[in-house]
Amino acid sequence: MRALVLDGFGDEDAFSLREVPMPVAGPGEVRIRVHAIGINPLETKIRRGWMAEVMPITFPAVIGSELAGVVDSVGDGVAGFEVGDRVAGFAATGSYAEYALSRVDAVALVPANLSLEDAVTIPTGAETTRRAIAPLRIAAGETVVVNGAAGGVGSMAVQLLVADGVTVIGTAGEANHEYLRSLGAVPVAYGDGVVERIRAAAPQGVDAVFDVAGQGFIPAAIELVGGPDRIITISDFTAPGLGVAVAAGDPTRLTADGFADALDLAAQGVLSTPIAATFAFAALPDAHRLSEGGHLRGKIVVQGL
Ligand SMILES: NC(=O)c1ccc[n+]([C@@H]2O[C@H](COP(=O)([O-])OP(=O)(O)OC[C@H]3O[C@@H](n4cnc5c(N)ncnc54)[C@H](OP(=O)(O)O)[C@@H]3O)[C@@H](O)[C@H]2O)c1
After folding, report:
1. Under 8 Å between Cβ of 58 and 93
2. 260-265, long-range: CB within 8 Å, 24+ apart, which pairs?
3. Rounded distance, CA 281 to CA 173, Å?
4. Would you say the CB of residue 251 lies under 6 angstroms from ligand 1?
5. Residue 294: CB within 6 Å of ligand 1?
6. Residue ranges in the chain whose pLDDT is less than 50
């Protein structure tokens, strides 16, 4: 099969498209013909070598996690999935490839009326949001700030919180304010003066903060909430120095529990993540370049080979 292979860390041009051995589904795994790939900023950091200490990789390497496709073989002991099923979720072997293996608990069936391109926008946003905000014990009627509300994770976080009856203040660049309003959030511009702008938008006070984008927002978050306890970040690894917890997912243990129902809600038209841009497989390096630009509305999708 063909895959985009890294032979070492580097810029976007470090990928080479070539033949690699076909993976074989082991016990508890399915092999998936990849039809759509979701690009996550973590993968650009892995490619650059910034994650080498915490997530070591061996070269040549095929990276990528989020995928949607069709099951083409099942390993021993697999129940609930069969050849031909449309699934979405997380790859165990790297999704930047024609075929990838997934643990059966890391994928979920895609409802018939949801395209695989739309399905692939869901798993990371929903799983990350649910896992990260669980310790915050957010209740209906509370006010929560989502910092970095317009991207792949933020878009989903806003929709899940709004659906739970939470008042959401979302930070974004001006170009994304109307979009955030359409999701049910109150938009506020990030940058200097953000604390005052959020206080003006939420005179009732802020109960909790979900920091998606990082970018030095933690001191402002502490000021708004009045302490570090009801703040969680997924991207600022300096936050523990200020008493704020980081929710870091272990890629080898992510499960479909956090997103399977979100696929159903997407199929019902109740939630969606806009596709910021779609790229052909061979143009995946351009998708990384766009991701690193850092100003996305929704999610970048790469088509399978
Ligand atoms: N720990 C975990 O489990 C986990 C899981 C998933 C993702 N992550 C991390 O979470 C981060 C976000 O992921 P993502 O997929 O949502 O990224 P993304 O789709 O690239 O979105 C990034 C968003 O950040 C916003 N932004 C840019 N500069 C900002 C600033 N100074 N202040 C506030 N917002 C700003 C942008 O909004 P505008 O366009 O409006 O500027 C953009 O919508 C990444 O660092 C990723 O690696 C962590």
Report:
1. no
2. 260/108, 260/109, 262/122, 262/123, 262/125, 262/126, 262/156, 262/160, 263/88, 263/108, 263/109, 263/110, 263/111, 263/114, 263/119, 263/122, 264/111
3. 29
4. no
5. yes
6. none
Determine the pLDDT at residue 184.
98
The pLDDT, as a whole number, for residue 251 is 85
pLDDT tens digits along 137-190: 999 999 999 999 999 999 999 999 999 999 999 999 999 999 999 999 999 999
Our CA dihedral for 177, 297, 91, 97, rounded to 10 degrees, sits at: 180
Ligand 1 centroid, distance to 255 Cα (angstroms) = 21
What mean pLDDT, rounded, does the chain reach?
97
Nearest to 144 by CA among 193, 196, 205: 205
Say if residues 133 and 158 touch (Cβ distance below 8 Å): no
Tell me whether the omega of the peptide bond preceding residue 219 falls within 30 degrees of 0, making it cis: no
40 CA distance to ligand 1 middle (Å): 9
- Please work out whether the CB of residue 248 comes within 6 Å of at least one atom of ligand 1: yes
Strand partners, 2: 19
Domains of the chain plus CATH, in order, are 2-122+259-303 (3.90.180.10), 125-246 (3.40.50.720)
52, amino acid identity? A
CA of 247, closest atom in ligand 1? 1
Q: What gap in Å lies between CA 116 and CA 58, rounded to an integer?
A: 30
Residue 221 Cα to ligand 1 midpoint, Å, equals: 16
30 CA from centroid of ligand 1 (Å): 30
